[in-house]
Amino acid sequence: MKRILIIGASGQIGSELTPAFRKIYGNENVIASDCIFPLKPELSECGPTAKIDATKKEDIAAVVKQYNIDTIFNLAAILSAKAEANPMLGWNIGIGSLLNCLEVAREYKTAIFTPSSIGAFGPETPQDGTPQDTIQRPKTIYGVTKVTGELLSDYYFKRFGVDARSVRFPGIISNVTLPGGGTTDYAVEIYYAAVKEGKFTCPLREGTLMDMMYMPDAIKAIVDLMEADPSKLIHRNSFNVTAMSFAPETIAAEIKKHIPTFTMDYNVDPLKQGIADSWPNYMDDSAARQEWNWKPSYDLESMTVDMLKVLKERYNK
Ligand code: SER
After folding, report:
1. Homologous superfamily of 172-212+244-282+298-314 in CATH?
2. Crossing angle for the helix pair 57-67 and 97-108, nearest 10 degrees?
3. Domain covering 4-170+214-240 assigned CATH 3.40.50.720 in the classification
4. Which of 48, 166, 227, 269 has a 20 to 30 A CA-CA distance from 256?
5. How far is the CA of 114 from the centre of ligand 1 (A)?
């Protein structure tokens, strides 16, 4: 990777991937774009930016040509619960931008990364130790776009030789940009609520297990996969990756170790609960570990220490 385009740079992943890439590959080699949310000054002032509507192929092609881009990061997506409120929008953003990026990647011979998700699985999938290759019949439009994205990306690789790679991310926990509209968002919101208010109302039932990952590991997964030797990759779209799996009461207990007065109650959101129940309890990510040495650094304990430290400093608590 030498010249990188990030589509969706203002989102939860993009807002941290962009500065991380600029550090590794040089400010001038990472072009940030987002057509939904304006770029924060941290992103727009220290490197090139571009105006791209990802549903317009010519917008993407023009920037790829202008900057001689070799790798596209296609991060445009509407998360699971939000997409259920407007399925057509979920499909148009998720698949419209992906197809355009794949076509541009084919024409201009660039590599492409598009995140998939635990949302690519459904209720018929084995939920414990979810295998790399298994049943994928998601029941959300978000999941439908993710499975479609996996299939299209593999198709473009096999049919046209496009270097398309992807991971199935679990819930990503971060302290820079809030995710917004996802089923796993509670695991981010709980930290903010714990620091600011000392209490949290959880939208998911006790016992609801899902895979999670701290943002530094998510960035590491992206870099490691995209820098991996392609001859070692048996799979491509998309690799299971996880760092931890927990239920609401477990993350609450971990926070309580640091904020003893913290309390949590429940007010279950039926939409989110239904989605969470259809996703894996924990995935088997051994294919990623074997094919490109995936290894996360953070577990629930170390992530909680870091999240609370950052948020307490930010909110003077
Ligand atoms: N974090 C996403 C969501 O909850 C799943 O990948 O929608």
Report:
1. UDP-galactose 4-epimerase, domain 1 (3.90.25.10)
2. 40
3. yes
4. 269
5. 14
